[in-house]
Amino acid sequence: MLVRISDRPQRPVTVKIDGRPFVAREGDSVAAALMAAGVVQSRVSAVSASPRSAYCLMGVCFECLVAIDGVGNRQGCLIEVREGMRIETLTAPREAGR
To answer: What's the CATH architecture for 12-95?
Structure first.
């Protein structure tokens, strides 16, 4: 479960996750926004087709790869959300190599 450690007001930022609008918070990483939206799988393994999701949240493990604004294999934990961003999970094995 995602629990925020700060109650500071943050500006809402509207993004699209797999085509659905979601209101994230300014300063959130893409990976945090996915978790807040209830997205439990950000990609599948290209080798075993097993589900993957954010793990380390600091750019080491590469499990949080997503497509952002049409560019694939971006590390969601290292990129902050911005207004109008399009985030696509890589949930089909054929997409994992994008």
So the answer is: Roll (3.10)
